[in-house]
Amino acid sequence: MSQTNEFPNLPADCKSMLCKYLTKEVFEALKDKKTSNGFTLADAINSGVKNIDSGIGVYAGDVESYDLFAPLFDPIIKEYHGFSATDKHVSNLNPDDLIAPNPDPDGKYIISTRIRVGRNVDNMPLGPAITKEQRNKVEKDVSEALMAMTGELAGSYYPLNGMSEEVSAKLIADHFLFKAGDRFLEAAGLNRDWPEGRGIYHNDDKTFLVWINEEDQLRIISMQMGGDIKEVFSRLMTAIKEIEKKVPFSFTDHLGYITSCPTNLGTAMRASVHIALPKLAEDMETFKAITDKYHLQIRGIHGEHSESEGGVYDISNRRRLGVTEVQCVQDMYDGVVALIKKEQSL
Ligand code: ADP
Ligand code: CIR
Q1: Is 219 among the residues known to form the active site?
Q2: Which CATH architecture has domain 95-345?
Q3: Taking phi first (over 0 means left), then psi (-120 to 50 degrees means alpha), and beta for anything else, what does residue 196 get?
Q4: Residue 182 phi, psi dihedral angles, 5° rounding
Q5: How do residues 258-267 score in pLDDT, each as one tens digit?
Q6: Contact, 120 vs 259, CB < 8 A?
Q7: First-to-last CA distance in the chain?
Q8: CA of 106 to the centre of ligand 2 (A)
Q9: Residue 144 annotated among the catalytic residues of the structure
């Protein structure tokens, strides 16, 4: 782990939250601090320092980082989630509370639906501070727990180490597997020892998938073609509860489920649709006004930091902390209904 006494060289036009909240005062107060896993301020900010086009730019090395570096993390958490240091996180994993009849039963707009949560193993450092041995133990424990899944969730584990280039390229292109070599994760220390310890578990239909040791130790994913959002949510809730019986997750009453990126704290949930909105795409101002109103984020169809193709967008909830899992999906659902209505009127 690294340490520095020098305030980083951040350009004046840098727009990340790191650039906004890492004042000289905050830097001086935190620069000599180190968590029990040896994680420092220099480690926490390296991704945003190396990638000045970051939206956020910081990562935590362990649950302790959120306390020790609170003068930097708290204002970022406040701005991203609208969640204060005194607020408490709330959870609701009950699919019966979600009101989400398919908003596009004729399949004119919604191509596919995906909901994922991030999870990390209790009493382990997060990915940016984990050792190779600890990471390998996470892979072993989690893949063994998954191999005991039954029914619709039964599947196989495919380690990245030894996977052919052809197979991994197809899994990535088909939106099932994470990409290699992400520069934001690289600078956060999340790609150390790649590809060892990483892999993907999935059922035969690829409607239930778990990424192991990417940005978080588990990314639990439910996805399918079309817009039956409730079915996707129900499958995910069943899977999370099953996995949690065997793998204790890192969780605090204040921040909910602990993740390496502060944008994922709380529910750690991103519920998205791939949706074709070619007319709205020609009027990005109207498009953005709707997504802002419903707390949604627009991404390209090959994941974060990618571009849209052919008027198809990845639309997802932006807030994840201080709102329940049901609310995260409800944000996405209500916004998608409004987007479809607008597209139809154009
Ligand atoms: P994450 O959602 O895990 O934070 P990304 O934005 O990088 O990360 O997306 C991961 C992968 O999931 C990408 O291949 C992306 O295209 C795919 N994906 C996201 N949402 C959907 C969706 N609704 N349908 C199909 N694939 C999706
Ligand atoms: C960035 O700062 O752009 C990357 N580290 C990714 C941040 C997470 N993105 C998001 O909006 N949820």
Answers
A1: yes
A2: 2-Layer Sandwich (3.30)
A3: beta
A4: -60, 125
A5: 999 999 999 9
A6: yes
A7: 54
A8: 34
A9: no
